[in-house]
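Re: the request from the purification team.
They wanted to know what the chain is likely to look like in 3D before they choose a buffer screen. I agreed to run a prediction and write the result into the notebook, where they can find it.
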Amino acid sequence: MSKHATPIVLTEDERSALERLIRGGKTEKRIVERARIVLAAAQGQATTHIAKEQGVTPATVSKWRMRFAGDRIAALRDAPRSGQPVRYGIQAEKRVLAALESAPPSGYATWNGRLIAEQLQDVPKHQVHNILRHQGIQLQRRRSWCISTDPEFAPKAADVVGLYLNPPENALVLSVDEKPHIQALERAQGYLKLPNGRAVTGFSHEYKRHGTSTLFAALNVVTGQVKAGHYNRRRRIDFLDFMNSVVAEYPDREMHVILDNLNIHKNKTDGWLEKHPNIHFHFTPTHASWMNQIEVWFSILSRGALRGASFTNVDQLRQAIDKFIAAYNPKAAPFEWRKALVHQTNLKPSYTNLLNLVLDRRQMPQGIRELGDLSLQGV
């Protein structure tokens, strides 16, 4: 005897939901097919007739009749599947990370995915890369950091930040530094037409050197405008000559100058500061020249006027810098320093940073290595 087909009785909400699935433009094809089978079954159609109309086997129609009768709308979705067993689990991950903490093979300075796979033998290279990617470890990226060892970091940082946020009334605040050894490079440049008809601009990788120039610059912290001077070398006498030109523009005015700790800025034997009692030098903490705002402007200069440019002599280089300053100053705006407090920051306690510290510490000076050990102890 043949078995009776499983009867399907729909509520109004279920019927509406099935019709929406069929009309939905983004509904998967297999879900549409199952919804049509259920709607046809609810109309009392025979299994063989539904199978013929839908182009499926009677067994498929019976399957979705019974599954819908048991779990209703949710039954139209695929049941969870176990999937392929995990082949490289947590143990493989631990072995990869443990390998990174050991020295690389003889003849190699650093690990890479291929070397790790050869070391472990039973974990393929692509799986090693998957584990490293999951952990956020990029072995070919070289991270660097600079930890200030200045015991007076806090008062020096507060002094500089105070000048940015609340400059003295009627006083001039300048951020001064030098960009040494700017190369005058001559290189071919222009437009290159590609086979597809498009044109790109660029420059040749070959170049010819035509000397170097040192740029001294002073940024007015309040206005953002820049004064610059060109010199052949970076010496104390050149620095003082530039400062004399700055002072000449603001005679008898109180001036606060922010500088880094370069030796040409801190010479105490020439008595220049004694001759200019209205000039006050403020030094950034050791290894914290990033606090000097002129460094930001040097980056703007490099991107706007120097990168990719071609010069046949040093005079052309200096003229290009002067033209950039002449175009920059009328539209200059002060850099907005938003952080009232500046704190010494240690490495973040992530496995990536700690791992890189372990990998690189053999090449560190002893003092920096000891600071790294202190950072590790604090994590």
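For the purification team: Confidence is low (pLDDT under 50) at residues 354-379.
Please add any questions underneath this entry.
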